[in-house]
Backbone:
């Protein structure tokens, strides 16, 4: 403890340089926490996915529709208890930057298969009775200030749904009961969409299986049923389906992990260079301390302590900023792809650990330099 | 009683595979409580001798006994704690740590002891009292004059009550008035506090304060003057 003042004062020797080093570590921790939040968000979707729901999409790609007639085919497959369907509408609310997920769904079936979509009985009734009614998540409703009864107009985003704008009335504001469902989306009646569509079809089916242990076999049975047809299907568990959203963007783990690693390594070099400069400038001081009786080990610990303090203050700054700013307010930016988004306490703590690691690693070489210093040579340089 | 005994001390530096002799078979005895001045031209080996006595450099040959310890046989891990207990070093350019106050600079060697915070503070204030800078305890080196900085450096050197005070041209960077004050202080430490002092100097006036002056040339003792 008695060396704390010495370490702190040494670290604050060049305030601007120390502040910039802290800032670089803060940015590294912030970026790491933000990237981790994205990956954790995708993981949370998979983790919360139902084991009784399987999803069928066009085997070529989920951007291609399947015939409406597949509905009965899936319903009649052994092991399927219930089935519903949906289409990605891709509508634009005022401006393309106001991106959020909007789907045409089989309203009754969808609410049956997704009890996580929580509506009051009045809201549910009002939506089911209104052909142009829609329900919106409480997150997106808060973001755009929507209330029950509000009129919303979406421009067509995908040409197969015509050219005319779609008008909706907000009939319900749902709460998401789990991370399997986000609160940043809008759902409306599939029939309303189908009425105006130039090409008809269904984007994906969601089937509820009677036995979760036989979900894979049921999925295979569905795909076999439509094998060798113009629109072959690919059926998988909801977890795999959720993961496929992420895979559409590439190998996220590798991509974001590489970015985070690059940021951390760059920061390591910045901090290491700063520490080395600091030690070089203090050659005489270190020689004086050694003359006074400070051992090599003590000098080593003081230099590493400086690196640790500098980096950890930056780490705390980055973790706090990430914890405060990366939260539910960012959800709408993900368009509902990541229902749960935020920096967990664990990630904040790991971020701090990362900053400590940067501090120690950055100080290692300068600390070794300081211990290898020959006292007489260092004193002679200034004499 | 002899505090320091150098026997046949030789020191040579190796530069580009060539041995450069600095001290040549030097034998000196320094009594406890003595104020010894070391004079000589540049390159005569004065500072090298001081560094050997401080245990921050090691002889090529010969032995250096200080008190009961032959420091020429000690490794760096043993020399560091030995220095903290037995040596107070005063540099020509003061070498205070600029980010520490006068108090913190003087306290620095005490951080290596087991003294409590309160005990350290008492020792520091006593040392600052002796050098007449108690009222400057919270000042940073940049807020002090050269003479005051050197007095703080002296306080740092004496705060652990070391066996030996080594001063490397302590007045070399000071004006005449400040130099006089520093020399009076060193003389007082020697006479009043019975400190053994070895001082390297180019200044004959400074050397006059010493009880004995040794003249070195090319690494050998050429003259001894007792005052």
Residues:
């Amino acid at each position: 403890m008695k060396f704390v003042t010495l370490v702190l004062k040494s670290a604050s020797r060049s305030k601007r340089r120390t502040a910039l080093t802290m800032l670089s570590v803060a940015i590294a921790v912030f970026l790491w926490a933000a990237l981790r939040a994205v990956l954790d968000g995708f993981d949370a979707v998979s983790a919360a996915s139902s084991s009784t729901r399987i999803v069928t999409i066009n085997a070529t790609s989920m951007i291609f529709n399947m015939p409406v007639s597949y509905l009965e085919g899936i319903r009649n497959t052994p092991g399927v208890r219930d089935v519903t369907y949906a289409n990605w509408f891709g509508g634009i609310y005022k401006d393309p930057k106001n991106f959020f997920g909007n789907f045409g769904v089989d309203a009754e079936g969808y609410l049956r298969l997704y009890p996580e979509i929580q509506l009051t009985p009045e809201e549910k009734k009002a939506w089911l009775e209104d052909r142009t009614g829609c329900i919106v998540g409480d997150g997106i409703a808060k973001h755009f200030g929507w209330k029950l009864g509000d009129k919303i107009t979406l421009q067509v985003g995908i040409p197969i749904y015509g050219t005319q704008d779609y008008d909706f009335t907000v009939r319900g504001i749902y709460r998401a009961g789990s991370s399997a469902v986000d609160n940043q989306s809008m759902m409306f009646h599939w029939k309303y969409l189908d009425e105006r569509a130039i090409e008809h079809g269904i984007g994906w089916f969601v089937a509820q299986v009677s036995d979760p242990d036989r979900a894979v076999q049921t999925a295979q049975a569905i795909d076999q049923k439509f094998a060798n047809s113009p629109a072959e299907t690919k059926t998988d568990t909801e977890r795999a389906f959720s993961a496929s959203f992420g895979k559409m963007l590439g190998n996220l783990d590798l991509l974001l992990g590489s970015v985070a690693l690059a940021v951390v390594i760059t920061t390591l070099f910045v901090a290491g260079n700063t520490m080395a400069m600091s030690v070089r400038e203090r050659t005489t001081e270190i020689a004086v301390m050694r003359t006074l009786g400070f051992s090599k080990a003590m000098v080593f610990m003081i230099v590493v302590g400086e690196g640790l303090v500098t980096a950890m203050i930056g780490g705390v700054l980055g973790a706090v900023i990430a914890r405060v700013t990366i939260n539910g307010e960012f959800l709408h930016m993900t368009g509902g792809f990541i229902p749960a988004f935020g920096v967990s306490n664990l990630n904040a703590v790991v971020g701090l650990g990362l900053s400590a690691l940067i501090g120690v690693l950055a100080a290692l070489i300068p600390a070794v330099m300081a211990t290898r210093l020959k006292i007489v040579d260092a004193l002679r340089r200034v004499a | 009683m002899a505090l320091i005994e150098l026997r046949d001390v030789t020191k040579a530096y190796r530069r580009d595979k060539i041995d450069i002799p600095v001290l040549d078979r030097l034998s000196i005895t320094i009594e406890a409580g003595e104020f010894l001045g070391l004079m000589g031209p540049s390159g005569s080996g004065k500072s090298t001798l001081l560094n050997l006595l401080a245990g921050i450099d090691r002889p090529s040959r010969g032995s250096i006994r200080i008190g009961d310890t032959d420091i020429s046989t000690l490794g760096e891990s043993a020399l560091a704690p030995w220095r903290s207990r037995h040596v107070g070093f005063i540099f020509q350019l003061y070498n205070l740590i600029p980010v520490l106050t006068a108090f913190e600079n003087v306290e620095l060697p005490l951080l290596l002891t087991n003294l409590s915070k309160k005990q350290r503070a008492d020792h520091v204030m006593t040392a600052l009292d002796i050098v007449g800078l108690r009222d400057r305890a919270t000042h940073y080196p940049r807020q002090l004059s050269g003479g005051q900085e050197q007095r703080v450096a002296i306080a740092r050197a004496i705060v652990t009550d070391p066996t030996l005070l080594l001063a490397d041209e302590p007045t070399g960077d000071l004006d005449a008035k400040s130099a006089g004050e520093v020399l009076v202080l060193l003389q007082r430490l020697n006479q009043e506090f019975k400190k053994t002092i070895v001082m390297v100097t180019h200044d004959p006036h400074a050397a006059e304060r010493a009880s004995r002056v040794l003249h070195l040339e090319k690494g050998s003792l050429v003259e001894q003057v007792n005052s």
Summary: The radius of gyration of chain A is 29 Å. The longest helix of chain A spans residues 15-48. Chain A has two domains: 4-45+251-382, 60-231.
